[in-house]
Amino acid sequence: MKQLFTFIKKEFFHVFRDRKTLLMLFGLPIVQIVLFGFALTNEVKNAKIVIADYSKDVTTKKIIDKIEASKYFEVEKSLKSHNEIEAAFREGKIKLAVIFPENFNEDLMHLNKAQMQVIADASDINTANTLTNYISSIVMDYQRELMQNVAISLSITPEIRMLYNPELKGEHIFIPGIMAMIMMLVCVMMTSISIVKEKELGTMEILLVSPFKPLMVIFAKFIPYLIISFFNITSILLLSVYALDLPIKGNIFLLYGEALLFIMTSLSIGLLISINAQSQQTAMFGSLMATMLPTLLLSGFMFPIENMPVPLQVISNVVPSKWFFQIVKAIMIKGAGFSAIWKETVILIGMTIFLMAVSLKKFKIRLE
Amino acid sequence: MAESVIKTEKLTKRFGDFIAANELTFDVKAGEIFGFLGANGAGKTTAMRMLCGLSIPSSGKATVAGFDVYKHTDEIKRNIGYMSQKFSLYEDLTVAENIRFYAGIYGLSNKEIKDKSEELVHQLGLEGETKKLVRELPLGWKQKLSFSVAIVHQPKIVFMDEPTSGVDPVTRRQFWDLIYAAADKGMTIFVTTHYMDESEYCNRISIMVDGVIRALDTPYNLKKQFSANSMDEVFYGLAREAKRTGD
Amino acid sequence: MVAVQLNNLSKKYDKGKIVAVDSISFSVDKGELFGLIGPDGAGKTSIFRMLTTLLLPDGGSAVVDGYDAVKDYKAIRGRVGYMPGKFSLYQDLTVEENLNFFATVFGTTIRENYELVKDIYVQIEPFKTRRAGKLSGGMKQKLALCCALIHKPSVLFLDEPTTGVDAVSRKEFWEMLKRLKQQGITILVSTPYMDEATICDRIALIQSGKILSIDTPDAIVRSYEGSLFAIKSEGMYKLLNDLRSYENTLSCFAFGEYHHIAFRDKMKNYSEELLKYLENKGHKEVEMMPVIPTIEDCFIKLLKN
What we know:
The structure holds three protein chains of three kinds.
Chain A: H1 2-17, H2 19-39, E1 47-53, H3 58-69, E2 73-76, H4 82-90, E3 96-100, H5 104-111, E4 113-121, H6 125-149, E5 155-163, H7 174-201, H8 203-209, H9 214-243, H10 252-276, H11 280-298, H12 310-316, H13 320-334, H14 338-362
Parallel strand pairs in A: 1-2, 1-3, 4-5
Antiparallel strand pairs in A: 3-4
Helix pairs in contact in A: 1-9, 2-7, 2-9, 3-6, 7-9, 7-10, 7-11, 7-13, 9-10, 10-11, 10-13, 10-14, 13-14
Chain B: E1 4-15, E2 18-29, E3 33-38, H1 44-51, E4 59-64, E5 67-68, H2 73-79, E6 80-83, H3 95-105, H4 110-124, H5 139-150, E7 157-161, H6 169-184, E8 188-192, H7 196-199, E9 204-209, E10 212-217, H8 219-225, H9 231-239
Parallel strand pairs in B: 3-8, 3-9, 6-7, 7-8
Antiparallel strand pairs in B: 1-2, 1-4, 4-5, 9-10
Chain C: E1 2-13, E2 18-29, E3 33-37, H1 44-51, E4 59-64, E5 67-68, H2 73-76, E6 80-83, H3 95-105, H4 114-124, H5 137-149, E7 155-159, H6 167-182, E8 186-191, E9 202-207, E10 210-215, H7 217-222, E11 228-232, H8 236-245, E12 249-255, E13 258-263, H9 271-280, E14 287-291, H10 295-304
Parallel strand pairs in C: 3-8, 3-9, 6-7, 7-8
Antiparallel strand pairs in C: 1-2, 1-4, 4-5, 9-10, 11-13, 11-14, 12-13
């Protein structure tokens, strides 16, 4: 036991003394979240929208002025009726509609609260999100201004509706995607490199000759990366909840449990690669080919699997990230419980057992 | 007296507070076999890098093949050959391809490359082997080929960094035969080695300790100077005084 | 008592195309310092790896400290010490951390076996907080030796411990081995440096996977047939060429300050005739004397046969 502990301690020394890799390991999730969360969705300029004002009072006038003044929107004034608006949406001419119901100002003044409707074309989910966020913030802004002059609290609630994609299929799918990618990177690439490094150094020979069980070597290698992975998952979740305002709808323990399963899957892939690779370069290249590319291309993260040619759809079934991706999506976004994801979980467990068995069988207690 | 092809005066290289090579002053004559000895970390590699134009000195003067090590590193590179510890041949290229490659990077014309290849192959007796991959050659051949490509552009000086380590005694001697033959034709040989018996094959030897040249003379005179029976004793006596521990 | 026993041990690579170890048999007694002397590619590393259970032999068998190298590999691992040729420790761990790590992996502590490594460890102790990557070649070797010794192995395998190390460190290293031998540890060491052979109790000269000769260094030198002469003059390169073209020369090669020459007829004394021949060739200050062959002379002779 003490041997194992010493070994794990050594692995941590390796990790923490390699500053550059360390920075990459912990910085990468943050950078990716920022990239996907902000950079890719921001700066939608001059989006065509329509405003239907059934109240036509001072308040709506002021809010409309503010919206028109914004550089993000270009207000189409010609469309008036419900039918016209719906037709424009369907044709993709407008991205968003703002509707003020009758008696907007009166409600606000007498009931101290008023509702407005914001309808967005959710087939382009990123743009829809960004635009509704812009509208919300303009309304908030106006609300603050109002409050400065009156003592009572007034609230305007934008009621947001997403057209064509009510389930928000594909919303924030980059979070589960990034989780899968980071874990692939840390668990597969880093573990395989760190095992192969021992081969290159010649220390593997000594370890094999020692009474220390070869399997323990593997186990000790896994622990630090397991911990780093958990740390990364936590930082990804924190970022997504607090920085991106994307709540976790499902059970957080279930999410961590599934993550642990996927980490095991990744670690067995890493082990399998390290058994076959003789140099760090080979290990790195192998990891990229075996994990990063399939995760990016075939997990449904970047490209919807439904739209792929049938052969690729079939192949995607053997990509573990695909199943993990679906699990996380279900838990985080749909708030699904275990009953909804048991099938995917069983598939992942099966893959893990298979990969572990193969790599343990192939693991050499000798040099060739 | 033959002309000096390497001439240094108080050549110094500092890395921060650390003086890797301290005021080296020596000269090497054309056609000389000059042994450059020193324990690990004595500063041999640093000095050699400066002479090859790979590293700019901190102070002092040096010319190699008549060119200044500060200003004319490109000319220096064109006039020297270099052979490192392990053979700098591409194992997955054939004999002919290796020769063509090295001749090519030294800017020989196609005709020159062709003539030179034939000449080399003939000289080394490798006629039947030109299409063989280098990794299929026995060690001795590899080493000869390696030396031959290092001097394919007929440099004035060849720098060799432990060219014979781990090689069997017969191959080692065959290799020295090549060195002798090259020196006999007027090429200058600047060589480092861990084999003390090989240092005896040199015309003159310098021994570096802690960045300083502590001894420089013919093997015979050095043995006399330090009242030693062998170069091994001379070297051991000097190098054990070293205080440095880092590489 | 026999510590290590090899019976027709063989190893092939590349589906049998390359014979690295060709049916080698020898035995090493307990407490012996045994040297495997040969150049790169002779098969030294393959032999060591088979004895340390890292490689499976293709033929023959080996017994280490009473255990079969194939069947009882678990028993052997743990009781032998091994320092691989390319072994370079963990560069990012300090001297102390490295030693501690290997001690724990072998199920012991530094304190438990400190006496054994003390001699060596005190030399590197001043640098115990330094990372191994920042040590000089000689220091690294010492640390590596400490790591291989820390569990008090019964047999110590050192694969080319002095390759790439300067002459001073090499000498110190062999001094350490001599002291270790006094503590009763069986040591098998391989080296490409022929001059190191004389320190061993017994040596095996090895080339291309075959043993050329195996005996004590003295006996190997004594078995050299015929006499050997050292000769020098003003122009050593010309001398070498002229000696080689002399009709009675069997072999002639550079050897340090002198050239070593052996003649075709082992019984006949050619000294006078040769000196005259050299004088005619214009050599000056010719010096010639009989010498006792070294291991290297023997190796060269064996190679040529």
